[in-house]
Write a structure and sequence with these properties.
The chain is α+β, with helices and mostly antiparallel strands. About 35% of the residues lie in helices and about 25% in strands. The longest helix is centred in the C-terminal third of the chain and has 20 residues, at about 290-310.
């Protein structure tokens, strides 16, 4: 079955060699990986997700996803393999394993964190069942042999009408983190990983009427404000929002991520933390209502259609470069949290979990996962200087939230082979 690219078209043309648009999820298991068992688990898992077994093709001048019957690759090192290339059997999804780690890499235009979690739930069910010779509950787990409904296959944005470009309210450019005086902006992309007790952090959120995403956005805003007390530009945190609710499409596999913009303005700064996070939650609710989400989706569909109407790849690349530059100007940082992983009975076999994705040019993205009793925050930044991470950790400390710094690593993501750069 052929799948037309709509919103995925924007992601494709936004991908660069030095900034591939993909999701990387890494699981450290309780024992060394059994390669034969993993191979079996991947094969049966991908039978459940035929809409992820695709290759990128050009048909009548338009890029589409077509079914790919080749095996999904499992690399021997955590470096992974280049997607959409011979080494990945031309898939846009791949796995790798080394020692006790399993890694999933998937093109972000193919799905989002919610879709990736579904794949991992299935994979872990099959892998842990065979590896440990146990009977795991299949509740909430998609398995091979299930009837795959049309709601999983169909792109819910395809029914949205193309809208004329609406006049968007002008945003003041946001505070740029790379402009901090004394910052060592060495362009070395790094990831600091922080672990919190899930029970303790949720208790802290409950006491202050917050949620993990909005509380993280607030604590990071407070840290940035302390480092930039006289900055005129607004501190604007982008919180990722699931668009499936507005589309009435809870089973859709596509990448369906919207955004709420949270500004840490002067009026907000004078309030106690509980009122601050309550206001952030109110703003997220206001911006993520059905009407707001559908309006945003309509604009995205219109932009994707405009891209498709362009005559050359060069024109599309220029358009996406301009759109990305505008996004980078308008945000200070991004918070991404899709909710508890819910990996079922297999979760107890996971010692560690990391979520990596493309790094913003000038800001920070915080990827949050809730796995096996811990929140794990991967703070991804385009420089090695820990000044903002340290400021965030200080906010946790001042508010009585215990944490463990799991270390810092260089951000390394596999490339995606782009058809126009061959």
């Amino acid at each position: 079955m052929q799948q037309k690219l709509t919103a995925a078209l924007q992601t494709l043309y936004s991908t660069r060699k030095d900034a591939p648009h993909l999701i990387r999820m890494m699981m450290q298991m309780s024992d060394p990986i059994d390669r034969a068992v993993l191979r079996s688990a991947v094969d049966v898992t991908m039978l459940r997700y035929p809409y992820f077994c695709v290759e990128l093709r050009k048909n009548d001048g338009q890029y589409v996803f077509e079914h790919n019957t080749r095996p999904v690759v499992i690399s021997d090192t955590l470096e992974g393999t280049q997607l959409n290339s011979e080494s990945s059997n031309y898939h846009m999804i791949a796995f790798s394993a080394e020692n006790d780690w399993i890694v999933l890499d998937v093109f972000h235009g193919l799905t989002d964190g919610i879709g990736a979690y579904e794949v991992i739930r299935t994979l872990l069910y099959y892998y842990c069942s065979e590896k440990y010779s146990v009977q795991l509950s299949r509740e909430g787990i998609r398995l091979a042999g299930d009837q795959i409904s049309a709601e999983e296959w169909e792109d819910p944005t395809s029914s949205l009408s193309r809208q004329p470009d609406a006049m968007q309210p002008q945003m003041l450019p946001a505070l740029v983190l790379t402009g901090y005086p004394g910052l060592l902006n060495d362009h070395k992309k790094t990831v600091h990983s922080i672990a919190l007790s899930e029970a303790e952090f949720m208790s802290f959120n409950s006491e202050n009427k917050g949620s993990p995403g909005t509380m993280t956005a607030l604590l990071l805003s407070r840290a940035v404000a302390k480092l930039h007390p006289e900055a005129a530009a607004p501190i604007r945190i982008i919180v990722c929002v699931n668009q499936r609710k507005a589309l009435r499409a809870p089973l859709a596999h596509q990448s369906l991520v919207g955004f709420s913009a949270l500004e840490y303005d002067r009026q907000l700064r004078s309030l106690p933390i509980g009122q601050q996070v309550t206001e952030f939650r109110r703003r997220v609710h206001e911006q993520s209502g059905d009407e707001a989400m559908l309006s945003s989706l309509g604009s995205a569909v219109s932009f994707a259609a405009a891209l498709a109407d362009m005559k050359t790849d060069e024109q599309r690349l220029d358009a996406m470069n301009a759109a990305d530059a505008m996004l980078n100007r308008n945000m200070t940082a991004v918070i991404s949290y899709v909710g508890k992983a819910g990996f079922g009975d297999a979760e107890k076999y996971i010692r560690d979990f990391r979520t990596w994705t493309r790094c913003p040019d000038n800001g920070i993205i915080v990827e949050i996962a809730a796995v096996n009793g811990r929140f794990i925050m991967d703070i991804i930044q385009p420089f090695s200087d820990p000044v903002y991470v340290n400021g965030f950790l200080q906010q946790l400390k001042e508010n009585g939230v215990a944490y463990e710094h799991l270390g810092v690593r260089e951000l390394t993501l596999p490339n995606i082979k782009l058809p126009w750069s061959e």
